[in-house]
Amino acid sequence: MTNGSTSGPVSTLRGRRDRRLGTVISDKGDKTIRVRFDFLVKHPKYGKFLRRSTTLATHDEKNEAHKGDLVEVVACRRMSKTKCWRLTRVLERGSSIELGADGLETASV
After folding, report:
1. Residue 10 domain-assigned (yes or no)
2. CA-closest candidate to residue 35, choices 50, 51, 54, 18
């Protein structure tokens, strides 16, 4: 029996991976972005919904995502102490506003 004898798509062999949508809040690291994932939690006693968020360290091989982008990430093997998510695609480009050397705002897309 060989490992390459199965003839199916790779996604069915690896199983379902956890996928999440989030917003890039930092792209300062090399091949690493920080993605904020927002969700709602119901208070156990009062029933009010509370907004919570978690920050995921995500691997971005091509450095294609930038601050403000809406991205899809998928769980993968651990790549470092905090990084166990991988960028699959950029869904929507965000516009980030930066200050130039002269102090005027310049929009980068």
Report:
1. no
2. 54
